[in-house]
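At your convenience, could you comment on the folded chain following this short note?
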Amino acid sequence: MEGFKKVCKWLWYHKNYIIIIGTPLAFLPLPLVYPYPQAKCGYAIIIMALYWCTECMPLAVTALLPVVLFPMMGIMKAEQVSIEYLKDSNMLFIGGLLVAIAVETWNLHKRIALGILLLIGVRPSLLLMGFMIVSSFLSMWISNTATTAMMLPIANAVLEQLKETELQADEDYYNKAEDNPSFEQEATQTQQDRSEKNDIQLEDRQPPAQAADENRWNSASQRESRRKALEEKYVRLTKGLSLSVCYSASIGGTATLTGTTPNIILQGQINQLFPDNRGVINFASWFGFAFPNMVLMLVLTWLWLQFMFLGFNLKQSFGCGGKTHKDREAYRVMREEYRSLGSMKFAEVSVLIIFVLLVVLWFTREPGFIDGWATVLFNKEDTYVSDGTVAILMSMLFFVIPSQLPTCGGYGYNDKGKKVKAPKTLLSWKVVHERMPWNIILLLGGGFALAKGSEKSGLSRMVG
């Protein structure tokens, strides 16, 4: 038995090597028994699928397998496979990532998020709605992961302040009640039913010391039960708010073509399978199709989370009436966080202008109902200028525009204490290299290569 456990442990520790070697050998009969292009392509897809599912090799490395397998099995030429890794869809994806990196580098996304939250308010339902709107909006332009990573700490900070403020208010109330017994009696009298008068009379007949001890015990018990109720309330609210950020980040990514990777993959596949589609899927057409669906999903998700974690007492959740002390304290936390960002710098303004200009150019390139600027200037006979062209053009401006306005007095000192003679640009290649998810770009290319191989070999037609 001991020997069997050791063998199992050894197999588990070396599972990646076993899968890497065993998978091609196990499915080798498929191309040997059926030496047709369809079987060979299916063999390559099975290997890549299992490698991807088990992650026995890095995902990006597995995505490069078509460069090796397709030429060696006679499915496609090496140069044809390699072209698939940098298609126009990949250029659009790279351009969108460069914009997202610039926005994150200069903290523009945090300023936008806090600004919207300050505008909406901190009441429970409004807070839930505010975080969902902000998360979905940011996720339309930057990655879902980055949006969630930024919004969750802000949500936790606001909830912690709300919780501490309410707990402190209760503590002050009970302390005041202990110092002034008539205050406690007056406060509790309004909550008691008239039928309890007999119990009160019995308590009055008890010795003063015993009545005082019982009052203190009742006060401590009420304080403890109230504290537990508040703890449960904020645990439930934290769950709901955390889920709202995650859900809305995923929902928001569906609204724009660059919002999430699957949208780019779909565009690439459509352009590959239907080369004469004349760019039927572009930024404007996708937004017109997906944005209403995003709004609908966001509303339904908000209603569901409202029901699950806040209930349907909308009057209480929306906090009709004046602002309470805890509302003002939570609002103060967000306002202080916003003030800590300082005034908008030249770099933030520049990034915002480039971002807005990029979105405008995307929407007006080929809106569909009228001729766009690209159709009038460049795409009269064929689609020469695409959304990827616009994305790369605007992204290049980040490496050209300085992060500070030219001044005569210099730009201060760098980390090494040397005087800065010229300002750095909005983006540097070092920053891009550190933050750019190159593995995702290779994954996109691997998917396009697989699709092209399936088409060339006839496997897609046979399976269809």
The longest helix spans residues 208-252. Residues 1-85 form one domain.
